[in-house]
Amino acid sequence: MTINTQFLAEYSSILKADGSNRGPRAIIIRFDLVMHEFQGKHGVVPFADYIRQTYVDAVNVKPNWGYKQLIKLLTEILRGY
Prior knowledge:
Number of domains: 1
Oligomer: single chain
Structural class: mainly alpha
Shape: globular
Radius of gyration: 12 Å
Strand content: under 5%
């Protein structure tokens, strides 16, 4: 399992557990917290800054996201890295 796949699995489980998405700002804050915690446990995620910026740009396009849409979006972004 690649580090990107591990990150996606961890982020997905947190999104599913939380269930409520309170807009782009809350989504981005949650993403940053999970990324920081994940990198502390597993090491550096390659291209983390680019992945984050791509995710932020995509999330800011739409004000309300469901967790399944967010997981699909992040999956597509991680395919490129």
